[in-house]
Design a protein that fits this description.
Length: 340
């Protein structure tokens, strides 16, 4: 029985979330998005089977569906992996059992569904290469396929940063000039340093980031001056953040991410919940340098950075205030696929 596997990280956005939605970045001044991959991975395993049926099993959702090729997308159950199977597989290729697991909580603001899509597409592409002796998709083609399928699934515009974080890992700077996307991925000692400072904490309450992004998108294209001015302020800070990342200035990174978060809260106060506000205050009182909600739409996971000497106190304070500490840390590695 042949087995193919993949693993891909999720991401936290340090600055410039929302600006990565096309074509929003074309109406802004020098937009930029900076994110950091984290080890709350999506994992996928394919086992080739000698039957006419496919099975998809989600370990984190505790769901399973069995189908044949003719009804690959005929119902809503686990539709996300089935859409990608339809696009990347073929009825003449062997059938399989697919096991998927997303370590990121649903609606956490970490781009979990997008990185799961990258992991699924990556392993399907790897298996196709094995059976058809074909070339692997390029990075851009893989991202465009997964993004297109997810947009079709959720029916709102999606940004691209989640896919590139899952594909590349490390620290990603995404810039959006008129002639095409530019991505600079760093896997330097800075990533290791940020890993030592990072705490991921779940508030226990998720948010619908895609829907919130759609409202922002619509307000911008409706010409809402307040929203456009705010997005351009976020773009300015994110551009400064990119410079700070390139010169490995951790102090500036934290200060700029905090500034960007303040602008975002001013524009959309509902991005912060009672739970995340309480956790943020607790983290800062215990000595944290930065505490912000992950995700442009305000998910339920918070990225908190602090020095080693106050780390234990910050963690204890978060737990005392209802936070759930997650095991993820900064990840230098992106999508990995392998046979066996």
């Amino acid at each position: 029985m042949e087995i193919f596997s993949s693993i891909a990280p999720t991401r936290i956005d340090l600055a410039g979330g929302t600006l990565d939605i096309a074509p929003l970045f074309h109406i802004l001044d020098n937009p930029c998005t900076v994110n950091l991959a984290v080890t709350l991975h999506a994992q996928v395993k394919i086992r080739i089977v000698d039957t006419e049926f496919y099975t998809v099993r989600s370990l984190d959702q505790q769901q399973e569906v069995t189908f044949n090729w003719s009804d690959v997308v005929d119902d809503e159950k686990l539709l996300w992996p089935r859409l990608l199977i339809q696009k990347l597989w073929d009825k003449d290729l062997p059938t399989f059992e697919m096991e998927i697991e997303a370590k990121s909580p649903s609606g956490a603001g970490l781009g979990g569904s997008s990185c799961l899509g990258i992991a699924i597409a990556g392993v399907l592409d790897r298996a196709r290469q094995h059976y058809l002796n074909s070339d692997l998709l390029s990075e851009l083609a893989l991202v465009q396929l997964v993004q297109g399928c997810e947009t079709k699934l959720i029916r709102v515009p999606t940004g691209c940063q989640d896919y590139w974080g899952g594909l590349r890992g490390g620290l990603n700077i995404l810039e959006f000039p008129e002639d095409g996307l530019r991505i600079d991925t760093l896997r330097s000692e800075l990533v290791e340093g940020l890993a030592e400072d990072l705490i991921l904490c779940y508030s226990g309450k998720s948010r619908a980031s895609g829907t919130n992004n759609w409202l922002i998108f619509k307000q911008a294209f409706d010409g809402d001056r307040r929203v456009l001015d705010g997005l351009n302020e976020i773009a300015r800070v994110a551009s400064d953040m990119a410079s700070a990342v390139r010169r490995s200035d951790r102090e500036a990174i934290f200060a700029l991410s905090s500034e960007e978060w303040s602008i975002r809260k001013g524009l959309w106060p509902s991005i912060e919940t009672t739970e995340t506000r309480r956790l943020s205050e607790a983290a800062h009182l215990a000595g944290a340098t930065l505490a912000r909600v992950c995700g442009a739409g305000g998910g339920g996971v918070m990225a908190i950075f602090c020095r080693k000497d106050v780390r234990e106190g910050v963690i204890n304070s978060l737990i005392e205030n209802g936070g759930q500490i997650l095991s993820g840390q900064a990840s230098a590695e992106g999508l990995q696929t392998y046979k066996g």
